[in-house]
Amino acid sequence: MVKPDEGKLFKKSLTTKERSELVFAYLINMPTILLILLLIGYPIGVSLWTSLHRYNLRRPGQFEFVGLGNYLDILTSYDFWHSIGVSLYFTGLSVPLIILVALGIALLFNQEFFGRGIVRSMLLIPWAIPGVVNGLMWVGLLGKYGVFDKIMRDCVNLANRLTGLEIDYLGMASPIIALNAAIAAHVWQNVPFACIIFLAAFQAIPSEQYRAAKVDGANAWNRFFHITLPWLLHPIMIVAILGTMNGFRTFDLIFTLTGGGPGDATYVIAWQTYKEAFGRLNFGSANAYSYLIMLITMSLAIIYIRLLYNRGTVQG
Amino acid sequence: MKTQLKINNPITKRLALYFLVMLATLYILTPFLWVVSVSFMNEREVTQMHWIPHQPTLQSYETYFHAHTKNLDIGTATARQFPRAIINSLVIASSVMVLNLFFGSLAAYALARINFAGKLALMLFYLCSRSVPGIAIMIPMYLLIRSYGLLDTHLAVILAHVTFTLPFTIWILKGYFQTVPLDLERAARVDGCSQIGALFRVFLPVTTPGMIAVGIFSFISSWGEFFFALLFTSTISSKPVTVVASDFAQELQVDFTIIAAGGVLVVLLPIILAFIFQRFIIHGISGAVTG
Q: N or C: lower Cβ tally within 10 Å for chain B?
């Protein structure tokens, strides 16, 4: 990561003060840099190297260069495309839901009403709950005696009565229910974070704009579409990008809520990678999986960083 | 036209607002409150599907803290590991918090105050490292930790958590440090403070809200982190509470009352911290994420 203008800066000779500041700056950044290089940078390199080899812990002696062989195997396998499909569905549905629900709640909580402070701080509850516990909670909520299970059963019964169909409600044993339940749990946990960002964004909108619009006779919808929404575009983008990255990484929730099941219905890409590595001990191809996940998330990260950069936040 | 009039009626508007706020609050709270409620029920009452326990009992919590109980239900073995696991989590999360505050404030100070060659590159380096998914580097990390003989130690989990929380910490702190007036620092320097002295005597006291936000953030994320903890720990000597709690997912037929009590025990501390420090947390999130 060498900056292009670094050379330029060195050409004009540095004063003693500048030089000592440079040394000082890197010195106090050193622990962090070393830690990241050792625990993130080095593994990224090794991961790439291993992904080009046949390497299974069951046969530890074998470490054979296969070039892009692992990638070819993966890209032609059912497992990979299935997990990509599940992850795309999971992320594609949960991100818009998070944005819509969070936007709705933020709009409400931005109004003046009695108890607003308390209600707003309730947002921190789902945020503070670890993913593992969230999964366990929803196991109960959707389980045999769970409230949501009862609601779902009642809904299906009602639908059956109205339409004359005979749909059996299988609960979490049904692939469709299990996958969508995971999405519901994920959305519930991630809405508060988005809400907090949106509420902060509302604060940044100059109130004169609303007053002017009111004077001009704009109704609430017009005010929302012409003032609020444009100001919210940037935060919405950020929530969408971070949400997509989180969606593709989802692991804890799947671990406790569905364990990938029923069958392979909730095999998201992170779960598939984990299984490949620590289930089948197939480190070569698991690293190839890892690299593909990395490609997806890092390209999103670059968009995110560009967004921040264009706003001038990165220059500091 | 008539409906238009109705909606514009201030009282109707008010009522509609309170109704919607109630719905939103129910959505946010119901899942968790139901679990809390179940944790105070006995198994029979769960099957009757009450909302509120008619005969509240601490039975489920006793499974966790009375190792001598004769209760041999499934899940008891996992439950008995909780007290030790909570201690492990406390050790890990507090260390992560302290290391974050120390290294984070050093790095953030340089980024906020010193103009040095490669600063932009360094910031991009931090931002990128924050986006690397843990799952993508799990195998080399696992092998690395194993080769140093650190598997199943607190240190392994602490190192992983610190590495993944530091970039965010630096990011938030940099923002807070930039709000400190330059004059304040200059005055300190004139009075004979060294650069590092200025950091500790001028910056840290002024930026306490930022430090609190960052400390609580790193604590809560380390407490709730699961993936690296799962990879690096294998026995109760180092397993944090998230990993122990995940065992419930592997055991079939554990009473949900017991799982619910366990869930409440895991989230109690982060939720209390989040409530106490909510102002700092909300300010921190909104400032750091959107820039």
A: N
